[in-house]
Amino acid sequence: MMQKTTLPVSLSDIEDARALLEGVSVCTPMEHSRALSLDVGSEVYLKCENLQRAGSFKVRGAYVRMAKLSMEERARGVVAASAGNHAQGVAQAARRLGIKARIYMPLGVALPKLTATRDHGAEVILHGHNVDEALAEAERYATATGAVFVHPFDNADIIAGQGTIGLEILEQLPDVDTVLMGVGGGGLLAGVAVAIKSRAAELGRDIKIIGVQAENAAAYPPSLAADALVPLHNVRTIADGIAVGRPGQLPFQIIRELVDDVVTVSEDGLARALVFLLERSKLVVEPAGAVGVAALLEGKLEELGLNPKKTAVVLSGGNIDPLLMLKVIQRGLSAAGRYLTVRMMLDDRPGELATISRVIAESDANVTRLDHTRIGGSLSMGDVAITIDIETKGHVHSETVLNNLRAEGFQPMIMN
């Protein structure tokens, strides 16, 4: 049910934003996921914002915010800060509107996001080690120069722009009963919640809205519990797009009133979700965009006591660094029991490696890398240490391989 509290963004604001976005953003596909549906036991659909222009939903809010600037404000230029997706959204909107854009990005930002932002014509300044530090510098620049600061999530126009996704979800999947999406600062979750909860109230329906955060960057659960903004002092996650240490004030007001729950997922869960989407849905999604799928795979809806019939998951972005993708795929395969690294101590005598190779081959597994050393402070004379990377077919198969090695007298230690 809608709350009586007056919220900073209304359904009419989102409808106005949609009119502004005509011809700017695209209505992204809603794809049925048979694989996920079978896995979780209910119908699951994927809202593919990873296929949006500039690779994420961010262009929606950025364009709405900037299209409303006066000519005098446009002449002063805009400044923003982002780990990548908001940067690309602002840069793309600025180019379309003819506005000069300066964007602060954290040191170590993914190269594809940095390159794409510059390719859209924005001036990029690398500053700070995270989004919060880059944000602070962007705000200082705005104060010093008069440039208009385009916040990534703590602005009503930004929230309204992101909320247009909610209108599309209801049109593409009218009988949806649960919607999951990632949350960093909260602009996307807040906007979609306003759109869907408002329309649901008009129809007399109850549609659950669930936010998902990476467990190492989860500021919303403690903030909601305290009914106040609780900043995190340490944010560390592969989901850089939602690595935000402090919720936005405006999104928090909305999320507190309208969102049913915010859950967290593990880093291994994020990696597993990314691999699942690659293999089973043929979709490239960055870790921040895959958190909703991770929540389904980790059984978070069941933990909340929910048993939806039709679930929509927003895949919020697809801008992933190929180098990070390599690491995440390996971690995801490991989390799914399909990639096993073991270390064993052996007597330095002929035939040991041959025996290990035979056991692994007879177990129908495959060695992809082997490291063999006789030198090290922990090794005694006559000892050898080997580390082996093995491709397996899942957790049960991995355990079979390990048991077969133990049966031959070896003592494999799993390396994380």
UniProtKB/TrEMBL annotation:
<feature type="domain" description="ACT">
    <location>
        <begin position="341"/>
        <end position="416"/>
    </location>
</feature>
<dbReference type="InterPro" id="IPR044561">
    <property type="entry name" value="ACT_ThrD-II-like"/>
</dbReference>
<dbReference type="InterPro" id="IPR045865">
    <property type="entry name" value="ACT-like_dom_sf"/>
</dbReference>
<protein>
    <recommendedName>
        <fullName>threonine ammonia-lyase</fullName>
        <ecNumber>4.3.1.19</ecNumber>
    </recommendedName>
</protein>
<dbReference type="Pfam" id="PF00291">
    <property type="entry name" value="PALP"/>
</dbReference>
<keyword id="KW-0663">Pyridoxal phosphate</keyword>
<dbReference type="Pfam" id="PF01842">
    <property type="entry name" value="ACT"/>
</dbReference>
<dbReference type="InterPro" id="IPR001926">
    <property type="entry name" value="TrpB-like_PALP"/>
</dbReference>
<dbReference type="InterPro" id="IPR036052">
    <property type="entry name" value="TrpB-like_PALP_sf"/>
</dbReference>
<dbReference type="InterPro" id="IPR002912">
    <property type="entry name" value="ACT_dom"/>
</dbReference>
<keyword id="KW-0456">Lyase</keyword>
<comment type="similarity">
    <text>Belongs to the serine/threonine dehydratase family.</text>
</comment>
<dbReference type="InterPro" id="IPR005789">
    <property type="entry name" value="Thr_deHydtase_catblc"/>
</dbReference>
<dbReference type="InterPro" id="IPR050147">
    <property type="entry name" value="Ser/Thr_Dehydratase"/>
</dbReference>
